[in-house]
């Protein structure tokens, strides 16, 4: 393999402030507490900025600001709300390079993914829901659907800006106002989005950003002034949220963990399938709730596919997330790296065979090589628990019925992939797989017009598309 010359993206396009306040009522305000947190670059462990952590009183201020703005925002004609969303979408496009660099610095994902996947989808979601803002009566939820009120939204660290767009765009299009809490390890693009709201002249209080950890999120979810809770994150936290809001009358959507099966049949185009498997599990370092972390391959082609997969992994480049040649960036945090290591070690202890390509790891930062486990049994923890890292478990099957049974043998139900040349088999499989999204001869493809969500312990409710409006309407 020929060598690639370094192609680093410039950090100079981003102006990171030494410290950040909370964004409440259209203004930057100090927290009422003195707790602050340092957000770091996971590729180098360099401190990027110090961020205020909101107290319960701060959350109360933010909800109050959102409630005050709701009267004006909800009464505004949909065509006028759409203008603000279109303006935000255009500003995101104009500042996409800046946002992409900041996302890679704070999150650790390769700039190629931030630039070519995340940011185009972020802008697309705002454009898409701007188009719905004056057409809500034609969405299928009655002739005059009404907004819910104040939406409390909690987003994860794996796709910070994209999850923000998934949450905020439909909420605003429907006439709701928002209090959003980004993840404690990746708050910077959400805080830059607050600046974009000001640049777009969004009315004060329509969007509020409160940074903090679990305590801040709990204060937001449990606040009596919040009418809608939207959460993306771990199944464990999702359970806590479901318990805490039970009986409160709040509308809730939960998008939680996954353990998706990527199913390859013997008639699949194997080279294409290898690319889909790589994209399914090693995209964003495996920090993807719908990642294809279980490869189910038909027994007759298992050796051939595995050989091709190992050759492909040997070409992946791990390193500086800001280098445009990088395929695999840094693990987001020390805590997440420890979890990946723990479950990988358990995989070996339980008898699975571990393989990684020759992959020198940088001296500083949080890194884990792309890893494949073969000889995996369905009882192994690496086949049942969400690793949320670049770790693939390989199992085999003989018949389509066996593939379905193994794919569905999980408490999760977020996504699945099917690789075959037979359209009838794709439809047969999709009808039987208990997964919210089934990709055919591709994986990890998203579009703002397409709904996304899961079954079982992967949560409930849908985001994206016309279906994503329902969660923010009083229907």
Report the strand count: 20
Rg result: 22 Å
Mean pLDDT: 97
Major beta-sheet overview: 7 strands, mixed
Kindly report the spatial arrangement of strands forming the biggest sheet: 13-14-15-12-11-17-18
Strand content: 15-25%
Distance between the termini: 57 Å
Give me the number of helical elements. Answer: 15
Molecular shape: globular
From the helix content, strand content and strand pairing, which structural class follows? Answer: alpha/beta
The proportion of residues forming helix, as a percent range, comes to 25-40%
Uncertain runs: none
Structure explained in plain terms:
Helices cover about 40% and strands about 15% of the residues. The chain is built from 15 helices and 20 strands. It has helices spanning about 55-75, 80-95, 95-105, 110-130, 160-175, 190-200, 215-220, 235-245, 270-280, 300-315, 335-350, 380-385, 400-405, 425-430, 465-470; strands spanning about 20, 20-25, 25-30, 35-40, 45-50, 150-155, 175-180, 205-210, 230, 250-255, 260-265, 295-300, 355, 370-375, 390-395, 410-415, 415-420, 435-440, 455, 460. The protein has a 7-stranded mixed β-sheet with strand order 13-14-15-12-11-17-18, with helices on both faces. It has a 6-stranded mixed β-sheet with strand order 8-7-6-9-10-20, with helices on both faces. Strands 1-5-4 form a 3-stranded mixed β-sheet, with helices on one face. Strand 7 (about 175-180), helix 6 (about 190-200) and strand 8 form a beta-alpha-beta unit. Helix 1 packs across helix 7 and helix 4 (about 110-130) runs parallel beside helix 5 (about 160-175). It starts with 18 loop residues before the first strand and ends in a 5-residue tail after the last helix. The mean pLDDT is about 95.
